[in-house]
Amino acid sequence: MQERKHISYSEASLFMRCQYAHHLRYARGLKRIQEADHLRLGSLVDSGLEKVLLAHGRGSPEDVCIQLAIGRIDAETDAYLGQEHVSEFRNATPPEGGPTIYEQAMALAYKAKTITRRVIAYLELGTDKWTTLIIDGKPAIQTELKCDIPGSSKHMLGYLDWVATNREGETYIIDFKVRKKRQSEEEHHNGLEDDWQLPLYAYALAEKGIDIKGVAHLNIYGQVPKQPKRNKNGTISQAACDTDWETYAEAVRSTGGDPNMYMKMREKLDAKSWINWTQRYITKHEREFALVQLAGVGIQMPAPMPSRTIFPMTCRMCDFQTYCRLDRQGYNAENLIGTEYFIKGEESSLVNIQRMPVVEGDRDAAEES
Ligand code: SF4
After folding, report:
1. What is the DSSP letter of 124?
2. Is any ligand 1 atom within 6 A of the Cβ of residue 14?
């Protein structure tokens, strides 16, 4: 196999987590698709936001930015549905009776549009709160960034979601994170502390003479507010519900009720964050340390005898744990190589995904270990 000259951050961090997992993914071609909808939601939101930020940088008013974002999300959804392997089956009823591919895609697009609108409001784009930085003559939005790996002929290719300067003149690298679950403040902060990707990008930008003050995550909860339930007497239930106050108040109004009578509910719902901003300053030492980590990966890669980490916390989150367990137990799992597959409950209705075959000895034995 021809050696690739560039690696991505996700490849480097996978290699650091487990060389064997890296070997399965990049040398053997094993891919696991799990929570694919969530992953596609992230990319739909990213492309909507890219449009918004570019239009905002050109001075477009907020409503134009929103329309452009919606147009981009619709176009990407159409392109997905138009793909040969999808279009043939888009309206087919899945055997398990779930939503069709078309319905899933539409639901996802709706979600992405709702989330993108929320982010636009959160960023206060109509104000001078943030100004997009210009790098090499272009706005730093979804920008490719190259970083040479010391001691190696390879380089790392990264993508900057957004680099922007605040009113105080401080420039931040900002990463959009669409999250499936709500996280606590502490989890958000830990996520940013553990991240060496953004400090590495800060290093690469410093090499271009750009002074980065800090890094930030825009944590976006990847759900749309649920409709609260109606009680038998026609009022709106005050039971816990993953919604926001606007949706709840609208539901109350639709029954002829007065939202002002539900102030306790408002307190509860306002306490739930749908978007969270985490930022921190970054020192020269941290930037350089991130480069040292990357250099370590560059020197070791590719590992001639890739070792397995086998650490419970790492393995639990590993995309390849099923293959790895089967392999360790002596089952022949070679037929998974080169395929894409689900693990959890085989819930896929996407037709191009080969299901995880049941190997003799059964899945249960594999899942137990
Ligand atoms: S399950 Fe654990 S040992 Fe196996 S590839 Fe994944 S991280 Fe490595």
Report:
1. T
2. no
